[in-house]
Amino acid sequence: MTDTVLVTGATGFIAKHIVAELLRQGYAVRGTARDAAKGLDIAQKAMARAGVDATRLSMVAADLTRDEGWDAAASGCRYAMHVASPFPITQPADADEVVRPAREGTLRVLRAAAKAGAPRVVLTSSTVAVMYTASHEPGHVYSEADWTDTTRSDITPYIISKTLAERAAWAFVRENGGAPELAVVNPGFVQGPALDPDLSTSLEVQHLMGKGAYPGAPRIEFPVADVRDVAEIHVKAMTNPAAAGERFIAANGTATLYGIGQQIAAALPDLARKVPRFEMPDVMVRGLAVVDKRLRTVLPELGVVRVCSNAKARETLGHEFRSPETAIRDAALSLRALKII
Fold it and tell me: Which residues are catalytic?
């Protein structure tokens, strides 16, 4: 009998690649979306673009902010992948707008998975739940042992939401007898091929660059993940006995925003005049962020290089990572194929 895997937020960028990887490996997938019919149509078209047979894919309605639907969604599922989480390109004034659905949605999925008897849940977290510690010496290489300090005044609601949601998940499995095993994947800034025009916040950055929205780029650098690596690590963490109770950083190398623009131009030379052509001084970025809310998201990153180790995913899961250059190039080429840039 084919095992069924629950994938929450199955129309998201990472989730669509996870669905594709699960289907390739012979699993049946039950996805969740707020609108099941619309979600299934989106996911089926994405699977067609990925070259994957979607006959074992179904979709049910469930919302992170509501209790209804989650028990039915998890019923009969061997495993659960909780991928859904709000990631706004513009940060809200009220942090609770992203914190509440992230944390409460995570607990709803875990409760439903526990009730269904699923032995393991894989949670999609982020490197932002790792890298904003209370203090560290310059040059520190972040690992799964590090945790973001949510009391810092310079971090965004999104960073707080991912950290508190992951903390809540670990507390749930620690405090509830009979809870599923938990494995957590912490991706960096996710690049790689889009499967449809519904872009993630990560790929929206390439879209804006390709449209010439920013002649200059803020001076920031961050860990990069290829979405295909992220999906493969989720599936490995789902079944590998050694993954239970562990976090796995999914990132390989770093990239600057300016460097991403230059790699877009290398892949698509006709965009060379549209991508950022210089790095903006930090003081300029802070001034522009007063009127451009999108820039506020990057303020904590200015002039800071945060490097993460992926040794645990390589050693425990046996994963070989794609390069950040491959991830960025393939993202750009996919956006061109979709006629987005």
Answer: 162
